[in-house]
């Protein structure tokens, strides 16, 4: 079963945050069970940055949150982070 995770974040200083977010997504895409991870911006909402990732299972995403790429990148991203939500969608079969 494929799981799509949409992480919808609000950030301060999007221009400073984006290079960090892209580096995080590049590393995160190599985590177990991840097929891809991309970063999107909302042209209508300046402080909105959205990560869209595809995983083999929700458990793989949850392991990623506890893993090395998260630990490596999140401390640098944290000063810009205001809030966020994760949405989990399963591929209809």
What report would you give on this structure?
The chain is α+β, with helices and mostly antiparallel strands and 93 residues long. It is built from 3 helices and 4 strands. It has helices at 14-28, 58-65, 68-77; strands at residues 3-11, 34-42, 45-55, 81-90. Strands 2-3-1-4 form a 4-stranded antiparallel β-sheet. Strand 2 and strand 3 (45-55) form a beta hairpin. Helix 1 (14-28) packs antiparallel against helix 3 (68-77). The longest helix has 15 residues, at 14-28. The protein starts with a strand and ends with a strand.
List the main descriptive attributes of the protein structure presented here:
93 residues; alpha+beta; four-stranded antiparallel sheet
Radius of gyration: 13 Å
Sheet-strand content, in percent, reads 35-45%
Mean pLDDT: 96
**In which range does the helix fraction lie?**
25-40%
Strand order of the largest sheet: 2-3-1-4
H/E series: EHEEHHE
Please outline the major beta sheet.
Answer: 4 strands, antiparallel
* Helical run tally: 3
Number of strands: 4
CA-based shape: globular
Uncertain regions spanning at least 5 consecutive residues:
none
Instruction: Report the end-to-end length measured between terminal Cα atoms.
Output: 8 Å
Class per helix and strand makeup: alpha+beta
Write the layout of secondary structure elements.
Layout: E1 3-11, H1 14-28, E2 34-42, E3 45-55, H2 58-65, H3 68-77, E4 81-90
Antiparallel strand pairs: 1-3, 1-4, 2-3
